[in-house]
Each structure stands twice: as C-alpha cells, then as structure tokens.
Amino acid sequence: MCQDLTGLRMNSLSDRPGRLGVAHSPGICLAAAFAISMAYAGGSSAQDRAQDAWQDVSGCTDTVDVEMFIQAFPESRFAEEARTCLATLRGSETDVLTGDGEMPRSHAPAPEELEAMLELTLEQRVLIQHGLNSLDHTIGIVDGVFGNRTRQAISKYQQVKGLPSTGFLTSEQSDGLMALGEARERHAWLDARNAKTQVALRDYLSTFPLGAYSDEAYAKLAELESGERSFDNTQNELERQVVRLNTLLSDTRSKLEERKNTIAELEASLTEARSELERGHAEATSLNAGLKEARLEISEVHSRMAALEALLEGTSKELADSQQSETDLELALNQARDELDASRSSASELGARLDANRQEPSTTQAALERVRQLLSGSRDELTAARTEATQAQNQLTVAQGELDRSQDELKEAREDLSLVFSKYSVSQVDLEKTRDELATTRAEAARAQVQLMIAQDILDQSKDELEEPWGELFQIRAQYSVSRAALEKTQEELAQIRAQYSVSRTDLERTREDLAAARAETSDVQARLTVAQVEIASLGKDLNQALARVAAEQKKRADLEERERRRLEAEAQDLRRFRSEFLAQLQDVLGGREGVRIVGDRFAFSSEILFEVGSDVLGDTGKDEIRRVAEIIRDVAGKIPPEVDWVLRVDGHTDKTPVRANEFFDDNWDLSQARALSVVRYMIDELGIPANRLAATGFGEHRPISESDDPQSLARNRRIELKFTEQ
Q1: According to the model, what pLDDT value does residue 694 have?
Q2: Contact at 8 Å (CB) between 594 and 687?
Q3: Which pLDDT does position 453 carry in this prediction?
C-alpha cells in the first residue's frame, strides 16, 4: 500500500514554513493530518474514520503521518498494515541517510546541528512542547525554550517511538509533534469557544498565549468582558438607586416616627389640659355651691335685719313713749317749779304780809296756817313729782341704753349687710365673668374635643372631683382667683397645644408630601428599573443574535479558511515538489563541488567560492555557479503554475569575526546584506531572473551553523544560502 519511496530523502528534508491550518503542519501529508484531527475531534463511526484516514495516510511518504494514524487508530483493521508500512519507511529512511555517494556516516551532521538547521521559531517550539504534553511527556512550563526537561521529554518520546534517543529533533519528529500540538490547541480552542465563558477563554490563552486562535480568543474575551462590565454597570446603578430609595424610605419613616412622637406628646399635653379644664369645671361647681351658701347666708342676714328693724321700731316706739313721758315729766316738773315759784312768791307775800300783819296776829296766824298747808301740799307734790321724775329719768336711762344697744346692733347689722352686699356684688360680677370665661373655655374645649376625639374616653375617665369645703364667704374670692389663674393657664396651654397641633399638622402634611414624592420617585425608579430590565433583555437578545452572527461569520470564515488552507496546501505541495526538483537539479549540477552543500531545505555556497575575503563583488567562479543556478531556476519556474506565488530567497551569512570597519562596510550585517544583494542583482541584471521572484536578506553572524571557533566551523558559517519558498 505504501508508495514508491523515490524522493523520500528530499521530502524528509522538506521546507518547514509556518502553520497553515488547525491540524496541519508542513512536512506532514495534509490529508493525513486532517483525517487524524477528525479522529480526535469526533464525527462518524470509528471504523469509517479509520478507513478515511488510512486512505489518506497510505498515500504519504512520511513516517510521522503513519505514526499519527497508528496512535489515532491503534485497534483498527488497518493498524497492522500501517505498522508494516512504517517499518518499510523507517528502513528506507535509514538507507537514504547511510547510502553510498549521498551522505556518508562519517560526514553526517550531529543531532543538534540537524535540529539547528530546522530553524524552529518560538511558535513552532511552543507547539512541539504542547505535542509532548499531549503524549504525557511532561516538559514543565510551555515557553518555547528547550531546556533540560524538554530535552528529557524529547528523549522519552524518541525511546517510545523506537528512535535514537538523542534529545534533539529531526524534521519528521518536529513535524509530528507540532501536528499533535496543533491538534491539541484546536481541541482546546473548540472547548473554549463552545463554553463561551471568560474562564474557558482565559484557560486557553494561558495555555496557548501565542496560539493560532489567540487573537480571536482575545477578541471574544474582550467582548464578554465588555458585556459583563455593561451588565455590572447597569446592576450597580440599579443597586445604587435601590440604596437611595431605601435611604429615602428610612428617612421618611424616621420623620413619620418623629411626627408620631410629637402627636403623642401633643395628645398627652391635651390630656393634661383637659384634666386642668375638668379641675376648672370642678372649681366652678364649687364656686356655684359657695354662691348658694352665700345666698342662704344673705337670706339669714336679711331675716336678722328684719328682726332688728322690728326691734328697732319697737324700741323707737318705746323711746318715743319715754320721750313723751319725759316731756310730760318735764312739763310737770316745770309746772311744779312754777308752782314752787308761785308758792315762794306766795310765801314771800305771806312773809311780807306776815311782817305787815304782825300786828294782826290772828289774821296773820290763820293766813300762815293756810300758807303752811299750801306749802306742805306743794312739798308733797314736789316730792311726788321728783320721785316720778327720778323714775322717768331711770326709765329714760334704761331706754337710752336699750336704744344705744339697738343702734349698735343696727349699725353692726347694717355694716354686715353692707359687707355681705359688697361681697355679693363682687362675687356676682366675678361669677358672671367666670361664667363667660367658662363658656368660652367650654367652647374651645369642645372644638379641641372634636379635633381629638380619640382621647375622649381617657379624658372622661380622668375627671377629678374636687370637694373642698367652703368656709367663710371671704374664701370664695381667693379660690375664684386660683381657679381663674388655672383657667388662664389652661387657656394658654390650650393655645400652645393648638399651635403645636398646627405645626404638627403642617409637618404631617409636609411628611405626606415627602412620602408622596418618595413614592413617586420609587415608581419612577421602578419604571426605570423595568425599562432597564427590558433593555437588558433586549441587549441579551441582541447579544445572542450577535453571537449567532459571530458564530455564522466564524463558520463562514472557517469555511473560507478551510478552502484557503486547501488551496495553500495544494500550492505548498506543488511548491514542495518544485523545491525538491530544484534542489535535486542543484544537487546533480553542483553537488560534487567543494564548498557547495544542502542544509535542510536550503542550498548553501561557501562564501570563498563566490567572493573574495571581505568583498561583496562576485568573482568569475561565483558568477559561473550562480549562472548554473539561474538556468535551473528558469527550467523549474516554467513548470510552476502561475497561481503559485514563489520566490528564491538569497540569505547572506558571515562568521562571528568582526569585519574591519572601512568605507564600504560598518559590520558583518552590512557585509552579509551586500553579498546577498550582489547575487540578486547579478541574477536580475545579467541572467534575466524576474526581480519579483528574488529576495535578498542579510543575517550577519547571528545564524551560525556551528558555534565552535575552529577555522572549519567559521568557514561553514560564512555562506550564501538559496531557499526556494513562497512569498
């Protein structure tokens, strides 16, 4: 089943450009790599996949392809045939490497030189390390640096494959490991892409930071992070709005609680005011009771005054009678006095007559006797009058005393009556004022009672009865003053309560307005939240649509990439064929010459053949050699299809001996670049090779074949390399 092994040596030393697809690396049959990738990725049944893969692998001439098939389908019915083919290929490869006239064993490059000729890039080294990891040959950190652990893993890989355990890779081994690394990377990418999470993408990027899909992974990660940030920003804004609403609600509740406390204090003050009002009512009732007692007392005083007036009237009559008796007594006394005076006059006359009639004793004696009798009678009458006058005087004195007492009692009664009338008048006026003020207070209390009917039951139950005995009438005024002061205080407190109630009502209205505003704001925020949720849902829908479009675009791009990959692989396969032909013809024409050798996929001329020491001018021998190369280029170029974009790269290299600075070259960079450019210009100007098919590159001493300092190694590093490749 294996193809003819002709040209195997050329293919084993074929070109190694960059990666051209997900599961393909140059140097491996494209169909084989793709089939084996499908074996790992899944698809139809295992036998069908094995059959398809073997149809492709059986047409390849690379041992790595067959090894990958055996690794993918170790139990298939084609496995034994694949092992036989692998043994055949390995035997042919050994013959090629040790055959006569080709490359004697004594001149075979060292393993490290063979690996150095591969000129593996950092990206290719990373893929090789991933390939080793996929085979459980742990290499530690995947960084593209082939350290001790990587060399040990390569040795272990070679031992498992039955190859010489050198720790350095050949072209086929590196191709196989890169294919495995690419397959592993593709599997990791498919898993990360299907997971559609940041964690999966970051895991992929941490494992394959320079992978083929790293740019797409970074783009998807940035897209997911942007969407998450947008969602987080929206969520944070909504949370901030909820916090503001909660704060506003808490403040509103605090204000309502303060209003409730204020109302409770006002109700307590009103309760106290009502208690004061009830005490005022009780005091007014006591005043009414005292007023009744005063009225009764006034009635008693009126009765006493009537009795005193009757007594006074009787006394006045008695006094009048006494005065009349006294007048009669005075008249009788005056009459007695007159009579006494008359008697005295008569006595004087009688004495005169007596003196005159002494001479008439008998007449005079008789007259004297009459006078004596008259005088005796007058004396008796005078004595009786005096007795009566004394009795009358005594009666008058008694009457006068009674009259004085009656007048004193009357005066006292009049004073008491005047005081009672005065107190009564004042009490009546004060009582009227109290009644008016009490009526006003009752009206105000009634209005307060209408406004605060909730506390009515407590007010009705908290009435205190003030039963203080009223003594004398003069206490009424003092108690009334106290009641009046308490009533005024109650009115003041009631006014304060009204003011506080008004303020509380205003605050309550303001609180209601704030609460209404807060509710409105809450409704507005809720509306905005709803809108935001709708927008988030719409964004999610748009995101899903965008992801669907991206997936469609990715599928479309994958299809385009697949078609492009197939086209490029076809071109690359053609280019490899023509490159092999080009190298074979060069080998036939120039292979036996001193200083001309094949290094990997390049044809190398020693600088001494083409140039003088330290010069960039082609010598005659060098021109002859380049002319033969140009003839081969023209012959091969005529067979290459026009769609294959090829180029012959001319690379100039020097050893590490510094060039002497002169007017032409500053350093080895200039010298290597000038020599490559001289070859290119000669091929363009003298040999007619199209300029767009040539490229001149100078590497100086920075890509040596050997690191030794001996003359042979330095001579090998001084070279001009021709590489037939694509642009």
Answers
A1: 94
A2: no
A3: 74
> In this structure, what DSSP letter does residue 145 have?
-
Alpha-carbon span 320 to 528, nearest angstrom:
116
Q: What pTM, to 2 d.p., does this model score?
A: 0.28
Total H helices, total E strands in the chain: 18, 5
**How big is the chain, counted in residues?**
727
Q: Which residue stretches of the chain have pLDDT < 50?
A: 1-43, 95-107, 364, 463, 465-467, 469-470
User: For residues 723 and 602, is the Cβ–Cβ distance under 8 A?
Assistant: yes
What whole-number distance in Å separates Cα of residue 276 and Cα of residue 487? Answer: 8
Question: Which SS3 state, helix, strand or coil, does residue 604 take?
Answer: strand
What tens digit of pLDDT does each residue of 552-569 get?
888 888 888 888 888 777
Q: What gap in Å lies between CA 35 and CA 461, rounded to an integer?
A: 103
CA 109 to chain centre: 69
Residue given tokens 């008048």 in the structure block: 425
Angstrom distance (rounded) from CA 417 to CA 228: 106
What pLDDT does residue 670 have? 92
The kind and range of the H/E element at 302 are: helix 214-356
- Residue from 649, 629, 626 nearest 583 by CA: 629
Whole-angstrom Cα distance, residue 625 to residue 675? 15
What pLDDT was estimated at residue 112? 85
CB atoms within 10 A of CB 191: 12
Contact 175, 62 (CB under 8 A): yes
The answer to whether 665 and 595 have CB atoms below 8 angstroms apart is: no
pLDDT at 418: 72
Going 104 to 107 to 111 to 113, the CA torsion angle's sign is negative
List of E strands, 484-619 = 596-599, 602-606
Contact between 675 and 607 under an 8 Å Cβ cutoff? The reply is yes
Q: Which residues fall within 8 angstroms of residue 634, CB to CB, at 6 or more apart?
A: 688, 689
Taking the C-alpha atoms of residue 726 and residue 571, their distance in angstroms, rounded to an integer, is 9
Orientation of helix 46-57 relative to helix 79-98, angle to 10°: 20
Task: DSSP for 507-545, please give it.
Answer: HHHHHHHHHHHHHHHHHHHHHHHHHHHHHHHHHHHHHHH
DSSP collapsed to 3 states, 33-52: HHHHHHHHHCCCCHHHHHHH
CA distance 36 to 543: 35
3-state secondary structure of 252: helix
Q: 659: which DSSP letter?
A: P
Please tell me the predicted confidence (pLDDT) of residue 452: 64
The dihedral formed by the CA atoms of 228, 234, 235 and 236, expressed in degrees to the nearest 10: 110
Q: If you average pLDDT over every residue of the chain, what do you get?
A: 75
Bridge partners (DSSP) of residue 698 are 652
Q: Are 683 and 689 in contact (CB under 8 A)?
A: yes
Burial (CB < 10 A; 0-12, 13-18, 19+), residue 642, is exposed
Token pair listed for 449: 């009672």
Q: Which residue in this structure is represented by tokens 């807060």?
A: 518
